[in-house]
Design goal:
Length: about 500
Amino acid sequence: MLTTAGILAFGVAAYGLGRVYPPVGPSQGTIAPADRYVSAQIAEGDVTLGDTSVPELMQTDAFELMVHDPDFRALAASPGFKALASQPQVMAALMANPKAFAALAANPKAFAGVANAAQNASALSSRSSNANSALMGLVASHPVAMQALAGHPDALSSIVRNAAAFANFASNANAFRDAASKAANNASMASSAVAFQKLAADNNAMVALSKDPGVFKSLAANAGAFKALSAQPAALAASINSAAAAASKLQSAGISNAALQSLAANPSAFALLAGQPKALSAIASHSKAFAALAGHPAALAAILSKASAFGSFANNANSFANAASKASSNALMASNAAAFQKLAGDSNAMAALKADPGVFASMSHNALAFGSLAPNARMLSSNLLASLGHNASAFSNLASNASQLSAAAHALQAFDAHSLMASAGAANALNAAASQAIRNNPQAFSAMLANPKAFAAIAAQPAALAALSSNQKAFAALAAQPNLAALMANPSFSAALSQANQAGVSQSHSD
């Protein structure tokens, strides 16, 4: 009976959420006077359809299989499922990397440790994002040479601490090899003489540096951005290796180094977008308008949460400007009136929206996907969204390659975790146990950094962790279907699920 109730609750919740896409308009069910109306013939571009993802989802073989699959049935009936669904920010992160979180949840103490580490390190994340961007640019431009240096962490750390002193080797790699082989006699190398001698004896590393001695000049040019990372040689080396892995995957897809730097500064946001490829593709195609909205995160969150309704502005940007300027009188905007009025007063943002009102149609057509991003709208920075537009074709193509997209996002999260671990370690913000937990779970740690309080709340709920750890296959199957993943991460789903559960309990009592 409990399993059946769980399945019914999930199905009813999906149906209930589907009822709001598209939402019922304020005039439905009213009777208006009959007026003669004459207009030009309707063109295809004049018709804006609401999102049909949920109804279509419920008619797919995937949804049918999920409903009848024993793993999924166990998940839907588990007492911790509702607790997870009540945290849409957490659910969105889970859908972006279910394997990592399911494995971590199997050890509640480790989960709590990583969540606690994320809370302690979150204050450093803004500073770390700048270092991430600079380091990614360096690695993307000198991948082989930087990985060669990463193979000798102590020597690399010494170079980073005093990068200006090594800049003169940029035009003479042989001079570097000679100096490193006699490191005890070199003022810049003497403190790490053994490490430099090992580097000099590594023929592969020396060949890589001889082919790209310019890496020393680039290190000197960016020394200030990531000098703090030098205090943690192992974490610095891990950062470089994960950055190289991410760069390789993204560069092969045609992503520019400039865009790579923006992604490196916003890895958790990119991970969320990677889980919703339709949204990623739509943003790439309307990047200027989305970047304008991103400058007003509260208004953007409100729009994303009701994307179908805002589709009505797709053919008339002026009507959106007028409505936003009088937001307190508009049913869609009243609850966020101040945010919309600020948006209306931003002339640059309004100009971008007037130039591309189709952005509202793109959100409406993919309302379920964008709705799942609403709780994390503040993470979608203007710089990140603009960079997607500068590589629109590449990102659109990448959005159609799920495995490559997911692998790149996970590599970026690993880079983020290792980089922040180095910064936090230097600031004494992490102890040895926390650092080990991060090394073992880099993607989960990176995701937690975006919403540390939400993950701390989940860490304190054994039932939620049990539901996550014991239903790994079910979560992986959900995440593999973008519409199902979007459904799970949508805030409206939790409310619909709660109502469905209450209805199921009442019905079971009646029976």
